[in-house]
Design a protein that fits this description.
Layout: H1 4-18, E1 23-28, E2 48-54, E3 57-62, E4 66-70, E5 76-80, E6 90-96, E7 99-104, E8 111-115, H2 121-127, H3 141-149, H4 155-161, H5 170-179, H6 193-212, E9 253-257, E10 260-264
Antiparallel strand pairs: 1-6, 2-3, 3-4, 4-8, 5-7, 6-7, 9-10
Helix pairs in contact: 1-6, 3-6, 5-6
The protein binds a DNA duplex (16 and 16 nucleotides) through helix 4 and helix 5.
Length: 271
Amino acid sequence: MPELPEVEVTRRSFALEITGARVESVRVGKPLRWPLGCDPQSLVGCKVLGLRRRGKYLLLDLNRGLLLLHLGMSGSVRFAPSLPVPGVHDHFELLTSQGVLRLHDPRRFGAVVYASGEQDPMAIKLLGGLGMEPLSDQFSLPAFLAGLQASRAAIKQLLLAGRVVVGVGNIYASEVLFLAKIHPATAASSIGSTQVQALYLAIREVLARAVEAGGTTLRDFSNANGMTGHFQQETHVYGRDNAPCHFCGTPIGLFKQGQRTTYFCPQCQSA
DNA sequence: CAGTGGGCCTGAGTGC
DNA sequence: TGCACTCAGGCCCACT
């Protein structure tokens, strides 16, 4: 499910409600991608100072350390004064003085990891290699250009790797490359500065627009209040193979890049 | 060293 | 209806 817009939509949907809450109990279900890294009971009594986002991670700041939440491919978070009895795919739950935080994740590619602080080795391992935040001032055109010039990988795969800029997953990578009229298999270092600028602008615009739209709900994404997104109604190429390109009418094509499906317009994005 | 591909899990959808 | 198979929004890590 979750690329940057979905994670940011999730964050916004309960950041204020959970801030200031005191953890009263913790429930863990089946193992997630990584172990929690602490005794769940040690979280009881912690106070929630705030909820931030870095890339596709949610950072729940506590008065003692922080929890890193990742939604993997199929994760979603709910936060409400109370929730129904946990189901088989609800693998982590914090009961707090202000509501119940629950992670639902059928495929269990997600994770909840405790770190004592941002210098904790686990925090560094997970967050240390992340690229620029695309919706922040940190994301600059010169730095983006330098990042692309340093890699001869295919641009789509470089975007997915998140080492240059974070948060662009499989859906949005196809979308931004379409808007910038760049073929997804183009070697990053060979893209001219004019097209790099178009890509830079497309990343900012598409991600910001997707956040406004409440994210993309393909199957099961919803925010912490259970509301779905509707950016899927605005995609130009993702999931539209054989449908006419919105700009030129050519049928949208698809191919595989590193096990992931890439959608593109063979006319608008001719290599 | 950079770049590619396997694997982690489960559920939904498709074709026979 | 049932079974086998493919595919899915991410990311670490072993390998080349």
